[in-house]
Amino acid sequence: MQEAHVQAELTQNLKEDKAKQTRAYWIRVAGAIALLVIIAVLINVASKGSFLEARNIINVLRQITYGCILAVGQTFVIITAGIDLSIGSLVSLSGVVMATFANAMGFGGVPLIIATLCVGLALGAAAGFVNAVPVVKLNLPPFITTLAMMLIAEGLSFKLSHGSPIPLNSPDFQSTGIGFFLGPLFSSLHLPGIPNPVIWMLVIVVGCSILLMRTKFGRYVFALGGNEEAARLAGVNVGRVKTMVYVISGMCAAVAGFLLMALFSSGSPQTGTGDEMLEAIAAVVVGGTSLMGGRGTIVGTFFGALLIGMLYNVMNLIGIESYTQKIVLGAVILLAVVVDELRKRYLRKA
Amino acid sequence: MRGIGKSFPGVRALDGVTLDLYSGEVLALVGENGAGKSTLMKILAGAQPADSGDILIDGKPAGITSPRTAEQAGVGMIYQEFNLVRSLNAIDNIVLGYEPERGIFIDERAARERATSVFAELGITLPLNVEASRLSVAQQQMVEIAKVLSRHARIVVMDEPSAALTDREIDRLFEIIKTLKAKGTGIIYISHRLEELPRIADRITVMRDGRVIETRPMSQFPPDEIVRAMVGRRLDSHFPDLPDVAADAPVMLAIRDLARPPMVDGVSFQVRRGEIVGLAGLIGAGRTEIVRAIAGADVPNSGEVDIEGTILHARNPRDGISAGIAFITEDRKAQGLVLGMSVRENVTLAHLGQFVDRDLLINRAKEEDVTEKYIEELRIRTPSPEQIVNNLSGGNQQKVVLAKWLLGKAKVFLFDEPTRGIDVGAKAEIYNLMVNLARGGAAIVMVSSELPEVLGMSHRILVIRGGRIVREFSRSEATPDAVIAAAAGAAA
């Protein structure tokens, strides 16, 4: 009798707790969306209506695509309490290498696209692996190893391209870079459709979110960031998990490099700069992931990237010059993190 | 120190302790692990506030509220693990916080003079321009002593100063202590090594369970009476009956010449099916290091770990787990749990593979079912499997750790201080669980610093000292006095 009673109570509490978690999750998502909508409306007024035009919204999504993909990879790294500074240069390097590769191949069409992407992914994965090895084997700080990789990749991309963009000979990449998805559906709205890169971003966001929240690997990423020694003693292959997060980050950089190369029809050593990397980290942090490790979500990162993208967009619309834009962006990042911390403290007390 | 009291959540660490120290004497402070010596000394050094009581120096309130004010009152503390900045040299360490200045610069010459004059006073020579991390342990200790003296300490507390020293270095240390005495400094000397006390101590104070039991002049305190005062008469019997181990029970775990210098120095023993073997010893004796080497948490340099005839070459904890070892660590917060994760996530962490479906996703419903089962079985007091473990009490956290390892159906269980810091009720439940595991045919090794626990919960007791097994007791032979004497190295 007693046991049955305990069982029932546990099940009941579990249900309530899960409901609470789900509710808390959706409240956060809804809160984020509501916040974005409010900002959007305010912006819309300020920009005299141009912001909320469907065309502009699609534009914002397209603009955040590359940074968001970088930020998704960075989220894995930051949840393990690490950091990857090399992603910006890896965007450039993978773009240059992929363009060189594609130009050297004697075939075209879908096989060329796939082969080129694979070369980029292999490069990104290899760079991530090199980032991780000293971190795993010698316990060096990832700040240093990825800083070194940032310089190496940047130098290499300029050397390989002799400092100027390498134009793609094949026109086959255009549909990936500037094509649209579901075009016919949107034609009645006088819109070209959803840009293909945006679809890539959404697939990566959803896929990585599942990887992080639902798989063994994802659970280990959190365990590692929460308490590395406890994870190790529980039999987690700490070295492999750590290596994988840098590999994922490098591969995300390669995808961003691929999409940018397709967009510009050239692989340029100047696409990825320090700014891209810093904005990706900002998106992760604004999205609620803790730099101390152990906590974070991919969906949060997406909203973080979206918020930053919207800010840029609206500042452009109302004609704020780029120096001021940086000041505003810095202030907003600081504000977002402070508000998030205050919210957490409030919840802990309540 | 008059009527010092101190409580931690759930523990009364000090209960009205009164202690006198005269100038120019060495007062030895002895007691079992957890008797309250360190807490008392931390209060004297201002590292922790007392809940009640006063500290008087020369009959006046000393006004000790922080390490800084303690220093100014003339108290110098030399911790066992030292407090040197490892990347600074001896001179910089000695003047740290009290740097002589000339304008905005540190007056290097004055600093050097201050350091060398203290060393000269003590008759010590050591390299002054070398990073502290490159000095030997004995040299680091001398820097510590010089540091407190340069701050005009009149009361010097030394916590286990001889623990890491060779015999020659100890002789040297005792000479320095004599120099200090001659200058009128009062010294409180904490030690587990009873055999060295006649050489150095003037009086001995024995502490137990947060109280001072007895203080006598050294010459009137024979070793066997010291041991008796340390142990007391308090072997409470809330331990369950241990199941008998059949004489022909097969050996499940065999350790042969296991070594991992400096803390594990050639250890061999066997554990049979259904047997609980207790590892007794003082803190720093190498017990934890032995079980860590068995589990693969540290990789042993040499020796064999044999589980049911199969030799385990563990290079990491993973290998140990797949060979059937469960290692319940002593520090559950730092090593046993991911505090920010839920009960469910912690319980399944070590065996997550059991919960992965064919689609490679974790089956959360299955995780919940299993976690609920263990919550009931072990009576983990948590509102639900989704509770974050940081919010649970110590006893319930420990049960979460146990559930994590029960899930794996391990054959060998290594418990390191399984009941440290948890309440009596939870302790009894954990003892029952250990007995059930033994009954089910597991081999159990338990490290414990609580003497009653070792005596009450072990079929056999191995006493560890200096990384080696120095004595073995059967359950019937083991008495508190004999085990303590063996652990402290006193001739029994």
Fold topology:
The complex is a heterodimer of chains A (350) and B (492).
Chain A: H1 2-46, H2 54-79, H3 87-104, H4 109-138, H5 142-161, E1 166-167, H6 174-178, E2 180-181, H7 183-187, E3 194-195, H8 196-214, H9 216-226, H10 228-233, H11 238-264, E4 266-267, H12 274-286, H13 298-317, H14 322-349
Antiparallel strand pairs in A: 1-4, 2-3
Helix pairs in contact in A: 1-13, 2-8, 2-11, 2-12, 2-13, 3-4, 3-5, 3-11, 4-5, 4-11, 8-9, 9-11, 12-13, 12-14, 13-14
Chain B: E1 2-8, E2 11-17, E3 26-30, H1 37-44, E4 52-54, E5 56-57, E6 60-61, H2 67-72, E7 75-78, H3 90-95, E8 101-102, E9 105-106, H4 108-122, H5 137-150, E10 155-159, H6 167-182, E11 186-190, H7 197-200, E12 203-208, E13 211-217, H8 223-231, E14 251-260, E15 264-272, E16 276-280, H9 287-295, E17 302-307, E18 310-312, H10 317-322, E19 325-328, H11 332-336, H12 343-348, H13 364-377, H14 394-406, E20 412-416, H15 424-439, E21 443-447, H16 451-457, E22 460-465, E23 468-474, H17 480-488
Parallel strand pairs in B: 3-11, 3-12, 7-10, 10-11, 16-21, 16-22, 19-20, 20-21
Antiparallel strand pairs in B: 1-2, 1-4, 5-6, 8-9, 12-13, 14-15, 14-17, 17-18, 22-23
Helix pairs in contact in B: 4-5, 8-17
